[in-house]
Specification:
six-stranded mixed sheet; 60s Ribosomal Protein L30, Chain: A; 2 domains; alpha+beta; 350 residues; Phosphoribosyl-aminoimidazole Synthetase, Chain A, domain 2
């Protein structure tokens, strides 16, 4: 794909061959730096592991600014929680176009404040301002920090042969929630009110903070990863690649919410390839898995065992529902983005 036409994260080859070779000075305090599939950095200070995650956040078309503020905190906090450490501190940069109504500014800041209270996170700084090059309010970056013991840290590089693979909620959680807003009328006509409302409600599930902290407390777990861009297929491959192991996954074992199936079918999207912020992937020993599933279910978070880890790193496959066996991997382009921009254009023409 031409670099100028790409939407979303940079491709894996550019990340590995260009960015990873340009990381400034070496510092022995860095315990976990930038790696494929790793959600946050870990540095050592005074014998403690400091977990730091950074994310930009963009407003979703059709959703209220309160939701934008909630996403800001939960998406950043999720990247810390999947490392096995509770998120505690945050800073953010709120960039707005000149002329942004004060009411909008106050709504965003209040929503961030309330979400931080909900997760017991202190806002410690950041930057707020108005800039002509900005066309809508955006979070240039939210930085979330958690502090724990070095042996508490979990990374996607910890999966071991004979572990089982668990998955919460189902695929395409974020894609379903955001696209349901853009295609709400079409979804209602095709599938009715119950499916449509369930799809819209998936916006409330775009977080894995509770998933990750619950799994870690019920563990031990060997690896956790939030299935963001590239979806479940990409997220599973990233764990396998980071850990140097293989995987055998079965789609028919996955949680499959009917609203996700409906939305993805209507838009001809492969749900396993679409952005799935809110879906937590976990590897754990077979003996520990039932306790983790039970703990998550007790928190009303659906979870299922979807496969297992194998020693052969050359075999990373998934058996699809139609009987085909295909390779795990990060798609060249997340199918969410073309559907998203088509939906925005459609909404603007109505």
């Amino acid at each position: 794909m031409d670099a100028n036409s790409r939407v979303g994260k940079i491709d894996l080859a550019t990340f590995e061959t260009f960015l990873l070779k340009r990381l400034g000075s070496r510092n022995d305090k860095v315990l976990v730096g930038p790696l494929t599939g790793v959600d946050a950095a870990v540095i050592e200070i005074g014998g403690k592991a400091v977990v730091i995650a950074e994310d930009p956040i963009f407003p979703a078309v059709g959703l209220p600014l309160e939701t934008f503020g909630w996403f800001t905190v939960h998406i950043g906090a999720s990247d810390v929680a999947v490392m096995g450490v509770k998120p505690e501190l945050a800073s953010y940069s709120l960039l707005m176009p000149p002329g942004t109504p004060n009411e909008d500014f106050e709504t965003i800041v209040e929503a961030i404040h309330q979400a931080a209270l909900e997760l017991d996170i202190a806002i410690i700084g950041g930057h707020t301002g108005y800039y002509p090059v900005v066309t809508v309010p955006i979070i240039g970056g939210i930085t979330v920090i958690g502090i724990g013991e070095p042996d508490e840290v979990v990374t996607p590089a910890g999966a071991k042969a004979n572990d089982v693979v668990l998955m919460t909620k189902g695929p395409a959680i974020e894609a379903t929630g955001l696209l349901a807003v853009l295609y709400e009328d079409d979804l209602r006509r095709a599938y009715g009110d119950e499916i449509t409302e369930a799809a819209l409600a998936r916006c409330d599930d775009i977080t894995v903070v509770k998933d990750a902290l619950t799994a870690k407390a019920a563990g031990p777990v060997t690896a956790m990863h939030d299935a963001t861009e590239g979806g479940v297929l990409g997220g599973l491959w990233e764990i396998a690649a980071a850990s140097g192991v293989g995987m055998e996954i079965e789609e028919h074992l996955m949680p499959s919410p009917p609203e996700v199936e409906a939305l993805c079918s209507m838009l001809s999207i492969d749900p396993l390839a679409a952005i799935a912020e809110g879906t937590l992937l976990i590897t754990v020993s077979a003996e520990t898995a039932p306790g983790i599933v039970a703990a998550l279910e007790a928190e009303r978070i659906s979870c299922a065992q979807v496969g297992h880890v194998i020693a052969d790193s050359s075999r990373r496959v998934i058996a699809r529902r139609d009987g085909q066996v295909s390779e795990l991997g990060v798609p060249d382009q997340d199918p969410f983005w073309p559907a998203f921009f088509a939906g925005v254009e459609k909404l603007g023409s109505e």
